[in-house]
Amino acid sequence: MPNTATAGNTNNSLNTDANITMLNNYFRLFDASRTDDRAMKDLLSLFTQNAEIVSNGSSRTGFEVVIKTFYEYNKDIKHMWDAWVLQPDGSYRTNWAVCGQAVDGTVYAKAGIDIMRVNESGQIVYLKNVQTTEDAYNEYNS
Questions:
Q1: 3-class state of residue 35 by DSSP
Q2: What is the pTM of this model?
């Protein structure tokens, strides 16, 4: 599948721009959703109900349980990310880094890659989180 963000394809280029804006909002809302109910609602609205979430080789359906479980283990978090890049298969990919504080007070820093697929309505249907640390977030896969 060709890159749809070509100059000659304005409609798809606009969709790509809107998708990239939405994906940037994903990280912003993720960080804010811990303490802001509106941010949590907005974050959850970015995903379809049956979105596939893949992390550490495990696959789940639905993002809500993932984010709520994440915040059971984390007190604070801050993401930084590279530009989202449209891939030949139609997915979007970015490198990210995060620093955070676990509920026990310990701090951490991790890095990885997110791969997202977005439907025609501009909602996330697939998120693959690839950690660069082998045991990162294993406690969420039980």
A1: coil
A2: 0.83
